Amino acid sequence: MILPITQDGDPVLRKTSVPVPEELFGTKELATIITNMFDTLDKEKDGVALAAPQVGISYRIFVVRYDRMREPGETVESVAPDTGVFINPSFAKVSRRQSEVPEGCLSVRGIYGTTVRYDRATVRAQDEQGVWFTRGAGGLLAQAFQHETDHLDGILFIDHASELYEQKERQPDHDTEAA
Ligand code: ZN
User: Fold this and answer.
1) pLDDT tens profile 71-102
2) pLDDT tens, 124-152?
3) What is the full DSSP assignment across 15-83?
4) Main-chain phi, psi angles of 114, to 5 degrees
5) Which residues are catalytic?
6) Ligand 1 centre and the CA of 144: distance in Å?
């Protein structure tokens, strides 16, 4: 089911989300939350990731569409959705190096800016069955890990971004992914 994406000003975006409790893993309730998050993200063509508070759910969950991640100049042929689910995530490791990167947010529609993010990040999280795993990433995925984890702590990118600008119309050749 496609859910409305909460927008800046909605109190749920400013709450610290609670960990998913052990008894919820492997349940239909958790599976439905995750399915709804992917359904909602699917229709946002520039959306690469989504955190649960963005659909009004204050649990520590985010989902990722790996197939929509592009580095500048890289063209990705349309492929079947390649997805990741991160529950109760935390950073196991981040790089010393940080870079300025362009950023947008599905909950702050039409506003883009520049943030400073770690170049590489490794996240430890649970899957839908509660099994712990770690995943390391660089580039856009590392950026998404940091953007989504911020959502779970009530932080929006506009809180710390510079050079904010408004862009109503999407420019297909020159767009910034949103998450
Ligand atoms: Zn966001």
Assistant:
1) 666 666 666 789 999 999 999 999 999 999 99
2) 999 999 999 999 999 999 999 999 999 99
3) SPPBPPPGGGTTSHHHHHHHHHHHHHHHT-TTB-EEEGGGGT--BSEEEEEGGG---TT------S--E
4) -120, 130
5) 148
6) 9
